């Protein structure tokens, strides 16, 4: 049958309102450029389209990243640039109309899986922990923009130049969509800005969850009313029961089945391929049934994801399996396709101004609702403004909604273009403004920071960080060496560091608020420190906390907890682990970056603990022989004085001996360093005070006169075989004669010059590198004094 005959059988209205394309059947594969143009076949065109999309979106993201722009905005702009809005008809060869449905189908398949994974990552149990201020911000942040937008819409409709019925329906739907805020979008924006676990990030996430709940309830009511008004008044009577049965089947049948499939995978092992495919088939089946009931494949899969437990093992396994394929491979295509469908020339129509006025009023209402409700709870204007900007952000769920509405003719192409334009402009401005105005570290960046040498309390408060069980024994040994007594007890705040996987919400909680999965992973940790408490009869008090957050922003939780608990020092494990014969067993670069952020922003002193080889016991023996030998290497400076103060606490331990080695340049008068006379006076005063305060024969004081860094290294090499723990300061005068030449070969700047020299030794011992405060702040304070 010819194409013309086929068209003659089709209704004329259908042809006039839809774009109809014709193509040959056998155009999937190409036989090469010697036979015909490869771009006339679907497979070569699809491959080239994806390559162009990836290159354009990554290039745009690379250019916009310094301005705190999100990945989704870069992908939309990349699609718009290669689409007809910018290049015009030149894109018809690469993106012909006959091939776009293939690319869209490919992208929407990835979107279904991505929406499902997003649903899995949301923990509905957080609803019961939402505070009143988050409820108020989420509620009024939805209600007031809806009132502002609909009121302005009603005023315009009362004028002579009112909108037609089709445009009016689309504008009303757009106002309702703009008044809502998606939790998935808020958490993704916060994660890209490294603010997910900040105080503002947690408040925004809670408020967005309230907004999401309100949007679900509103959509259910509006869908029922719309069906009753537009088609059959009796339709909701059988629509709601069928949907209720669909969701009950999902929760009471498919949810237990999926959890049972996941339970067949042993802890710590990867999910079997057959189990993974079974879950994917269930998801696709849910999407199909949801489409049959008029809910759309996206909505059904998202709700099914919400039914499943987040985090390990299910959430983590699914994210590991699907995240790269969906987020890195298919979602860029989906977002770019929305940019390609973005017909910017439609924004030139005369009615665009009135539509934009309504949407602007909706955004003004969003700002008004968020700022007023925030100010009622005592939130500052700057912080409330940043919160309002975050609540205005749009992302992948909104793109999916706009595309679905355009396909169903709920909104016109003009409204679709206006919605995409507003989303790109508002989200881009919001990301840039929030990234510039809000600094989570401002809360705990203090000019005068807590330190052991400055503490006036009769106890020592230490925050210790543990990211895996191998860190427990070295840290427990260090706490024992800190000499907890009845007159000078130690309060240890143990913070377990867990990377955020399989969930979109980060949290910092004490042990009694842990979920069951977190409690299971913390059992050995809790038992080990409970045994430590019992051994010292209350001289050590331990409080347990857990943070689950991205490593890029986890330092916010560490520094916040140190500030709230008034810790004098934070102990973090080094990112490398050594085994037998000083062979490196593991190296974790995210932990190294985390340690660097803590060293830069901590509100107190920081100690980096390096464990090399086996751990030696510090417990007293029956013959009371000294079994743990510590050496403190003193070069000079604030960090060395802090390390000396920590060593003074340890020397009173009945099972510890201490040796202090002070390195002095053989030609101190020629020093061209930045160390001032005041620093040298403080060093002398600290050393004299140390000698006067220690009344024991277990301490040895040595002064080593060296010419340069080579002489310092030779002295250190003579000490490595005789001691179990080295304590050093991190920062020293880089131009000091004592360390001259050593900075050229430094491998680990976070350990300082002396610490790096010790770590690269071949002997088995532990190293504690102490920093009192960041060197940058120290130099600023000196410049201010001058």
List the helices and strands and how they pair.
Elements: H1 3-8, H2 12-17, H3 42-64, H4 71-82, H5 84-87, H6 97-121, H7 132-157, H8 165-179, H9 183-192, H10 199-230, H11 235-263, H12 273-292, H13 297-307, H14 314-340, H15 352-376, H16 381-391, H17 396-407, H18 413-437, E1 460-466, H19 472-481, E2 490-499, E3 507-510, H20 516-521, H21 523-535, E4 540-549, H22 554-564, E5 569-573, E6 576-578, E7 584-587, H23 589-601, E8 605-611, E9 628-634, H24 638-650, E10 656-665, H25 677-693, E11 699-706, H26 709-719, E12 725-729, H27 752-759, E13 766-771, H28 775-785
Parallel strand pairs: 1-2, 1-5, 2-4, 5-8, 9-10, 9-12, 10-11, 12-13
Antiparallel strand pairs: 3-4, 6-7, 8-13
Family: Belongs to the monovalent cation:proton antiporter 2 (CPA2) transporter (TC 2.A.37) family. CHX (TC 2.A.37.4) subfamily.
Main location: membrane
GO molecular function: antiporter activity
Question: What can you tell me about this protein's structure?
Answer:
The chain crosses the membrane at residues 46-64, 71-87, 107-127, 134-156, 168-190, 202-224, 244-263, 275-305, 325-342, 363-382, 417-438. One of its GO terms (biological process) is potassium ion transport. It is found in: Membrane. By secondary structure, this protein is of the alpha/beta class. It folds into 3 domains: 8-263 and 272-437, Na+/H+ antiporter like fold (Up-down Bundle); 443-581 and 592-597, 3-Layer(aba) Sandwich (Rossmann fold); 616-786, Rossmann fold, CATH 3.40.50.620. The chain contains 28 helices and 13 strands. The strands form 2 sheets. Strands 3-4-2-1-5-8-13-12-9-10-11 form an 11-stranded mixed sheet, sandwiched between helices. Strands 6-7 form a two-stranded antiparallel sheet. Helix 25 (677-693) links the parallel strand 10 and strand 11 (699-706). Helix 8 packs parallel to helix 15 (352-376) and helix 22 (554-564) packs across helix 23. The chain is elongated. Mean pLDDT is 80; it is low at 1-16 and 777-786.
